[in-house]
Amino acid sequence: MREPLPREFVEALAAASGRLGIFTREILWYPVVSSTNDVAGMLADREAPEGTVVVANAQSAGRGRHGRVWASPPGAGLYVSAIFRPKRDVPLLTIAAGVAIAEGIQSATGLAVDLKWPNDAFVHGRKVAGILAEANSSATGPYVILGCGINIMPAAYPPEVAVRATSLEGELSRAVDRGLLFVECLASVSKWYEDLQRGRLAQVVEAWRLRATATIGRRVRGDVGGTTVDGVVETLDDTGALVVRTRTGLARVTAGELTWV
């Protein structure tokens, strides 16, 4: 059941109102949901406008890419989804979202954030945030639900994934202002989404490359469309595809799962 936004969010939103773009329409807070993406998708099907945001204190069935479980205990992370109804095709939306979330985290905490293709955020080599984009359509046309989970406290992930995950408070050894983190991420997503809408695709790609120091030059391996790709990442091309140099030449990866080796 929906509840009023916590004060820390209300105050942060008021302070940043001039930078939030489309995210000034409706922000809905829930103590617990199955998944913020599920709730946002339901609202989009009911003709909720672009810029509607769903925030939850916990998720009972949070998920990441490829259907993986995203641990979402109460108060331990930031779990957010937003509705987008772009007027034109925006193929780089997930790339731009990765840049935006990394930028938002850094603005709120001071931590340097790296990106792993296509849009996972890492701090000191361990994952701190993930993004899930899901496209669909309703009677009012196509839409995209963009969801993000950010680990704020160490409790945000189970012990068995501690070797590959981290949290903001674990890295900082201090408390994190959730309201500030929320609005800085929203403001950054708004800015980069506007750049996409205005056709500034080259700026988005270059911003991703600058934050991909943990990915570019790294050896990766994975199954891509039934073909094994094994090689060293060279760059992200202008379409958002990852370019990997293999023993047989260059491979463009547009979808699939790659593991750092």
Notes on the structure:
This protein has 261 residues and is of the alpha+beta class. It folds into two domains: 7-210, 2-Layer Sandwich (BirA Bifunctional Protein, domain 2); 219-260, SH3 type barrels (Roll), CATH 2.30.30. It contains six helices and twelve strands. It has helices at 7-15, 36-45, 93-109, 168-172, 178-197, 201-210, and strands at residues 27-30, 53-56, 77-84, 114-116, 120-123, 126-138, 141-151, 219-224, 227-236, 242-246, 249-253, 259-260. The strands form two sheets. The chain has a seven-stranded mixed beta sheet, sandwiched between helices. A five-stranded antiparallel beta sheet has the order 11-10-9-8-12. The radius of gyration is 18 Å and the shape is globular. The N and C termini lie far apart (44 Å). The mean pLDDT is 90.
Write the layout of secondary structure elements.
Elements: H1 7-15, E1 27-30, H2 36-45, E2 53-56, E3 77-84, H3 93-109, E4 114-116, E5 120-123, E6 126-138, E7 141-151, H4 168-172, H5 178-197, H6 201-210, E8 219-224, E9 227-236, E10 242-246, E11 249-253, E12 259-260
Parallel strand pairs: 1-2
Antiparallel strand pairs: 2-3, 3-7, 4-5, 5-6, 6-7, 8-9, 8-12, 9-10, 10-11
